[in-house]
Amino acid sequence: MDYIKIRFGDDLERLSAGFEKAFHDIFRPRPVSPMFTTSERSWLPQMDIYETPEAIIILAELAGVEKDQLEVEINSKAVRIHGNRPCLSKVENSTYRLAEIQYGRFERVLFLPTPIDTETVSASFSNGLLQIHLAKVPRDIVLKVPISEG
């Protein structure tokens, strides 16, 4: 008899990430022969997100994407990464035997596990890897609220 492990508590975030990955794996665009593609086809670049006590770091694999074809938008709860990887020209007198590289528009919206400081963000792009460094909002900041009369 097989058993299913059920975990409660802090592991819910890990399980939620697993469900999100499974959902993306099921519904993400599959490699298709270029002769059947359309110009509006989109793909999802692979990404890693990791967290330190002070920051959230996102690493996106974007080989073949030029820096000027890439945009990053942030707010305190999410990051949107979008752009375009242009299709390479087909070699004359050739027949595709395998076509797995995906081209065209892409977009990923990543919801963050904790609020970030939108004023303290840095991004670098090198060798097809985009790295975004997001500083977390410190949780121990106490704001005093003035109370006005009447």
Task: Specify the overall morphology.
Answer: elongated
Number of helical segments with 4 or more residues: 1
Mean pLDDT, to the nearest integer, reads 80
Computed CA radius of gyration, to the nearest angstrom: 21 Å
Secondary-structure element order, N to C? HEEEEEEEE
| DSSP E strands, number | 8
Largest sheet: 4 strands, mixed
Task: Please estimate the helix content.
Answer: 10-25%
CATH architecture of the domain at 31-88 and 98-136, by name, is: Sandwich
CATH class of the domain at 31-88 and 98-136: Mainly Beta
Low-pLDDT stretches are 4-12, 32-39
The CATH topology label of the domain at 31-88 and 98-136 is Immunoglobulin-like
Descriptive key words:
4-stranded mixed sheet, 150 residues, 11% helix, 4-stranded antiparallel sheet, Immunoglobulin-like, mainly beta, single chain
Could you explain how this protein is built, in words?
- By secondary structure, the chain is mostly beta strands.
- It has a domain at 31-88 and 98-136: Sandwich (Immunoglobulin-like).
- It contains one helix and eight strands, in the order αββββββββ.
- It has a four-stranded mixed beta sheet with strand order 1-6-5-4, with no helix packed on it. Strands 2-3-8-7 form a four-stranded antiparallel beta sheet, with no helix packed on it.
- A hairpin with a 3-residue loop joins β2 (47-51) and β3.
- The longest helix has 16 residues, at 12-27.
